[in-house]
Amino acid sequence: MDLLLDLALLSLLLLTAVSIAWTRDMFAAAMLTGIYGLLSASFFMTMGAVDVAFTEAAVGAGISPLLILATLALCGRNQKADPPRAMLALCLVGAVGALLIAATLDMPAFGDPGAPAHIHVAPHYIGESFAEIGIPNVVTSVLASYRAFDTLGEVVVIFTAGLGVLSLLLALREQQHPIRALSAPHPQHLVLRLVAKVLIPPILIYALYVQFHGEYGPGGGFQAGVIFAVGFILYALVFGLDAVKRVAGHGVVQFLAALGVLIYGSVGLLGMATGKNFLDYSALAADPVSGQHLGIIVIELGVGITVAAVMMLVFYLFSEQLQRGLEDGSGKELTSGRAG
Questions:
Q1: CA–CA gap between residue 294 and residue 81 (Å, rounded)
Q2: Are residues 67 and 144 in the same domain?
Q3: What are phi and psi of 218, to 5 degrees?
Q4: Does 52 share its domain with 158?
Q5: CB within 8 A of 38, min separation 6: which ones?
Q6: Quick one: DSSP state of residue 78?
Q7: H or E element at residue 130
Q8: Could you list the residue range(s) of the whole structural domain that residue 65 is in?
Q9: How many domains does the chain have?
Q10: Distance (Å, rounded) from C-alpha 218 to C-alpha 333?
Q11: Tens-digit pLDDT profile for the chain (340 aa)?
């Protein structure tokens, strides 16, 4: 049964990917991209990677299609025919695909018990992580403690990506006239407002659950941050960007994006100040295991704050750019269906 489910999901993934590459309707491609993210999340669930499935469902099936639609409102719905560029893109994708397939030939077979990871690394993590770290979730132990420096790099990458989007879109904003934020739907859309009021509180509560339950089950800062951002983005879509900015404006979100990285890095520096290694949490408490537990909670909080803030910041910037484009008339192609 599991094999049939995996084959069905992989077939749907392949069909969706081909459809995305084949269609020239960018709106259809955006919707198919969301479907692809949802199918990917389902496939990760069947593989037991619940943490990755959380993130893929929120980002791949939620936030990413929304940002793609905002971009389409500026550049148009239909793709222009450009055979030379399409052929160049096809050759590039084919070359990269061939390299990836060639690289897999040197990898051990999937599930091979003799693979180096299963012989040298996995036995220590599985057998010793609870005694060394003190939490039952081995995935969290690996991500937040054993390879905490690598996870810090991932958080810095997310923060840097947010700064990049901020720099690019703010530069465009300075060259154009001021805008008003995206307005809320008409007051007659009572169904949207009521559904949002019912859904948003459970979304935020679930984000907090995922944040502080990551030591015992699937979850952690990355997943919680994305889910938390989704709640605020849904609020902005239904009640308007001005409404959500009264709670968390540009300045607050930018501050929080930097604060999360600062919290993470400060934990590492605190370990060094007490004579331990960078990001060695055992120095945070008299008992090394308690120190590990405390350190993981704090750095996961920093991760969640940065991820949520960067997601919200990117949404703010794209929404403002979309409204500016609509006011300039550059978004008419999407609403009318004409070629961009």
A1: 57
A2: no
A3: -60, 135
A4: no
A5: 57, 60, 61
A6: B
A7: helix 122-133
A8: 1-79
A9: 2
A10: 43
A11: 778 888 888 899 999 988 988 888 888 888 898 899 889 888 888 887 887 888 888 888 888 888 888 777 777 677 677 778 778 888 998 899 899 999 888 888 877 778 887 787 788 888 888 888 888 888 888 888 888 889 999 999 999 988 888 888 776 655 554 444 455 555 557 788 888 889 899 999 999 998 888 778 777 888 889 889 988 988 888 888 888 888 888 888 989 999 999 999 898 888 888 878 888 888 787 888 888 888 888 999 999 999 999 999 888 888 877 766 555 554 444 444 443 3
- Would the pTM count as exceeding 0.85? no
Claim to verify: residue 304 and residue 172 sit in the same structural domain? yes
Q: Name the domain boundary from 35, 64, 79.
A: 79
Q: Which two tokens stand for residue 134?
A: 């003190």
* Residue (of 336, 314, 272) closest to 62 by Cα position: 314
Tell the burial category of 158 from Cβ atoms under 10 Å away from its Cβ (0-12, 13-18, 19+). buried
CA distance 340 to 115: 51
